[in-house]
Amino acid sequence: xxxxxxxxxxxxxxxxxxxxxxxxxxxxxxxxxxxxxxxxxxxxxxxxxxxxxxxxxxxxxxxxxxxxxxxxxxxxxxxxxxxxxxxxxxxxxxxxxxxxxxxxxxxxxxxxxxxxxxxxxxxxxxxxxxxxxxxxxxxxxxxxxxxxxxxxxxxxxxxxxxxxxxxxxxxxxxxxxxxxxxxxxxxxxxxxxxxxxxxxxxxxxxxxxxxxxxxxxxxxxxxxxxxxxxxxxxxxxxxxxxxxxxxxxxxxxxxxxxxxxxxxxxxxxxxxxxxxxxxxxxxxxxxxxxxxxxxxxxxxxxxxxxxxxxxxxxxxxxxxxxxxxxxxxxxxxxx
Length: 335
Ligand code: ADE
Ligand code: ZN
Known about the structure:
Number of strands: 8
Largest sheet: 8 strands, parallel
CATH class: Alpha Beta
Structural class: alpha/beta
Bound molecules: adenine, zinc ion
Strand order of the largest sheet: 1-2-3-4-5-6-7-8
Number of helices: 17
Distance between the termini: 18 Å
Helix content: 40-55%
Radius of gyration: 19 Å
């Protein structure tokens, strides 16, 4: 286990469907008798060369065809928890895309109960905890998002909050103000992707029209120093996903990632994996990549881990416990 894997951390930006590794795609396809045009996992992985967000989303949605039964979702959740836990993640607030399954005829109850089965097993076997955040797809009709929220409510799905993902450019957050209002009235937490491919105005719009408590990605805030200052002053967390940004060409390479500028400006940055099966790394891999590229010291890594705990929706008591474990890691590192 590396020292970065030993650093306790919370993951706040991971799409469970983005943890579907090629090996599991093939296994589930075989079980279901689905014919796939790939010989093996490596040939599927070989397709994971992306020029932008949309080129990734096309394959991401296509691969979801193998997720059909409650059991498949249970497997997916458990495998993610196992891998994340090995990298030091103690708790995750996990996105899922109910609409992407619902439009394929998979009942939302099977999706939610399957994910819950997998995470319950992870909790009892190794103490990993997870909460679910249902994301609305911003490139699908708003009415469908509302119907999905109604369905989640009707089946009393154990979700912590709602989010907003999929194609950002051309689909302003303001379209989803009503469904986010309804979610807020139900007591659900609110987060949204913004500033991944869209500019600072997309981030402002998500904050102003959706009352979000965290901004997912948010890296393009660097283009508007007044916005970064506001995010820092208001302690609005940014769930940054460095390897994702490189693979989707949101940045030219990791060395040009705005992470150091965001940190220097006092932004409440957290480090996450987004879609680890597609982007070449889980949370610990993202920590290791930025540590190496930017030569981050242990205190900065501990600060990033601390931020992830503070930005989570965990209880004050659990936050204190994980913060203390991070402080302990830092003290041990100094010995
Ligand atoms: N859905 C899964 N991954 C995503 C990302 N990086 N941005 C927007 N929507 C997504
Ligand atoms: Zn994402």
